[in-house]
Write the structure tokens for this entry.
Amino acid sequence: MRSICILGSTGSIGENTLDVIARHPDLYRVCALTANTQIEKLAVQCRQFKPDIAVVRDAVGAHQLQQLIAELKTEVLHGPQGLIAAVMHQSVDTVMAAIVGAAGLLPTLEAAKAGKRILLANKEALVMAGPIFMDAIAQSRAELLPIDSEHNAIYQCLPHSETSSHGSYRASGVEELLLTASGGPFLKRAIDTLDLVTPDEACAHPNWLMGRKISVDSATMMNKGLELIEAMWLFDMPEDKIQIVIHPQSVIHSLVRYVDGSLLAQLGEPDMRTPIAYGLGWPHRIDSGVKKLNMMTLKDLHFMVADAKRYPAILLAREAARAKGTAPAILNAANEVAVESFLQDRIKYTQIIPIVNQVLQEVVAQKATSLELVLEADQQARAKANMIIKGLTR
Ligand SMILES: NC(=O)c1ccc[n+]([C@@H]2O[C@H](COP(=O)([O-])OP(=O)(O)OC[C@H]3O[C@@H](n4cnc5c(N)ncnc54)[C@H](OP(=O)(O)O)[C@@H]3O)[C@@H](O)[C@H]2O)c1
């Protein structure tokens, strides 16, 4: 039986993870659950799964949770130290890293250093601190399994006789990786109307049900840019060997092209429970509750190149990927601030990527030789993005 800590259990990935776990009470025990502000939702999860530890953002939330679950033996903690205590709990052997954004970096890195099996949904941790994170994995020989559906698909298409899963690897004979993207809700919308997009429209993804930040990233396709950087680290591939292909049906989740002419793909319903079940069960397969893909109903599968005018985020992410060092952390931080401002209706949808661009040009990137330098770049980029936004909204 595996003991699981879910970082971000009240989010979209967190809830899907609990759904899969609930189907296999003989295989998994929930040891720790964490949330930020959704205390009541976390209380409901605690009553169902009875974890040893539950973590929330602050002391006020912890007090509230304590009262809601007074009948349970669950220890309630709070703040960044609480998150670290959750992953480090002696009985935790598997950590689902599903906090959104940079806040996921420190607890996920601690889990990597401690050699726990990491199911990585929080791509931002790898984007920000790729070399440091992968070093920690290699040193502790932690198992790292990608949960992002594209990376999970690629992982499934690589020969596992060559898979170490302890850090990045490049299987022999791989020519390139192809990351598929749905194109988001604005694939066909007239470009000159994009400045009228509302947060709810941006979050209405045509195929996937996700948290609001990643939904906006999917609309701008910054999500694909972050995934490109994530794939570089996971699979040790250079930026120019990773193609982005728009595939609006979201049936093919990504592909690996080999030198012999083979193109391997993983197909499935657009439901995150498939990659989550893959990570939980690895190296075995377990039931995920996902509806079977009916081949007979697959009529037209379309593929197209991402238009740089509609999706300038991709070029920007490629620029940060080539610059390396702290540039991806700067890109990520600026994007988090700009997306949050858009979700709060402070800036227009079409201002998100120009703000990220300005921050990327103005904050000087350094070599990412330490976590401190990465966190410093993250802070500088946030300050710069906030300053630009203040100027725009004055
Ligand atoms: N959703 C998907 O289908 C999908 C697919 C691939 C990859 N991912 C990646 O998975 C991660 C999670 O995405 P999601 O869609 O599940 O996000 P989400 O629905 O917004 O959930 C985020 C989770 O993180 C918690 N959280 C937010 N800010 C926090 C902070 N500062 N400190 C501690 N916890 C915090 C939230 O707690 P509260 O609920 O209390 O706010 C929630 O539990 C992201 O990195 C995303 O890119 C998601």
In short: Residues 371-393 form the longest helix (23 residues).
